[in-house]
Amino acid sequence: MKLVLTEEEQFLKDTAKSFADERSPITHFRSLRDKNDPVLWDEEVWNEMVKLGWPGILIPEEYGGSNFGITGIGVVLNECAKTLTPSPLFATGVLGAYAITNFGTDEQKQNYLPKIVSGDLTTALAIDESSHHDPKETDVTAKKEGSNFVIDGKKTFVIDGSSADLLIVLARTSGNKGDFAGLTLFLVDSNSAGIKKIKLDMADSRNYANIVFDNVEISNSNVLGDIETGGETVEDILDIGRIAIASEMLGNAEAAFDTTLDYLKQRKQFGVLIGSFQALQHRAAEMFCELELTKSSVMAAMKAAEEGSNELQRLSSLAKTMAGETLHLVSNEAIQMHGGIGVTDEYDIGFFLKRARVAEQIFGSSKFHTERYANLSGF
């Protein structure tokens, strides 16, 4: 397994970097936050991403996509993360695109995938029901009534949940809360009768929502994958999502590190640059080493996903663990090395800390994935 980018992947990474620097710098994110934008991402910027083909990176060419692979979408998310670019790309171009491409019926693919590619449809994956990530704890029910299903319950912390057009919902069709068996995925129009979206205000100023389902009736044709195999299906989708978010988190950490290094080279104390202090040099060196290890972990996971490796589950958990711990370390050190101004709104560095604390919890914390990695390894 070669842990290097191909020429095409490097070109895509360079394109994403130029786009993020020019079209969505951190000042763009700040302006969205300050004006309390309802969806917290810019539709014009999103349309430009669509023209670049990014939502279709994981979608086959027959549906208008490029089928460029997880490394392709990973490098885009990594570069966009460095300027804290908010968009539906993760929820739609990764989770929605992968789920429907790999588990949808021919009719579902023909109906939804071209719309994702064209930017006419955004999606959200509704999994968790508490403050802790654990799909098997699903208690939202989907009861069979004739040829339809009726969904009841509440999902929490749904990424892009307040603006998504299509919800991919994990519900229990049999068994009890805590059982891995008896779960099924459904495609649900977010404007269906009985759905209530409750927008959340999170520290990182992104788009999240709690979603309540009250007797939401959907057709049998809205089942994604096979009935009662949703537990295995959603783990497959989540592993791809974990790798993608790990790549984004790595980008956050890299940008926070670079910003901190620049500050160390500019800030003077006692008449000398603080970057000359050996204690700070040692701390910066530790961050650099952790970033390099995380790069290798994320790259290995992306390549495993593209090669269909049996190690995919373990490597996705490793990547998410490493990315979470490294981003936590770097965001903390960045604030401390900036001193008191690091927590003021005037400086951008605080945004990376806020994003870190939320991203660390998405689809499982480092503790969750350390335990999962151990279990998958037979410990």
Question: Outline of this structure?
Answer:
This protein has 379 residues and is an alpha+beta fold. 50% of the residues lie in helices and 16% in strands. The longest helix is centred in the middle third of the chain and has 35 residues, at 230-264.
Structural description of this entry:
There is one protein chain. This protein folds into 3 domains: about 5-120, Acyl-CoA dehydrogenase/oxidase, N-terminal domain (Butyryl-Coa Dehydrogenase, subunit A, domain 1); about 125-230, Butyryl-CoA Dehydrogenase, subunit A, domain 2, CATH 2.40.110; about 230-375, Butyryl-CoA Dehydrogenase, subunit A, domain 3 (Up-down Bundle). The chain has about 375 residues and is α+β, with helices and mostly antiparallel strands. About 50% of the residues lie in helices and about 15% in strands. The protein has 11 helices and 10 strands. The strands form 3 sheets. A 4-stranded mixed sheet has the order 1-4-5-8, covered by helices on one side. It is globular, with a radius of gyration of 21 Å. The model has no long low-confidence stretch (mean pLDDT about 95). The protein has helices spanning about 5-25, 25-35, 45-50, 70-80, 90-105, 105-120, 230-265, 280-305, 310-340, 350-360, 365-375, and strands spanning about 125, 140-145, 150-160, 165-170, 185-190, 195-200, 210-220, 225, 270, 270-275.
Estimate percent helicity. 40-55%
End-to-end separation in angstroms reads 25 Å
What general outline do the C-alpha atoms trace?
A: globular
In the CATH hierarchy, the third-tier topology of the largest domain is known as: Butyryl-CoA Dehydrogenase, subunit A, domain 3
Tell me the fraction of residues in β-strands, as a range: 15-25%
- CATH architecture name of the largest domain: Up-down Bundle
Helix and strand succession? HHHHHHEEEEEEEEHEEHHHH
Under CATH at level 1, the class of the largest domain stands as Mainly Alpha
Query: How many helices in DSSP terms?
Result: 11
Q: Output the CATH homologous superfamily of the largest domain.
A: Butyryl-CoA Dehydrogenase, subunit A, domain 3
Number of strands: 10
* Structure class: alpha+beta
Mean pLDDT: 95
Give the radius of gyration. Answer: 21 Å
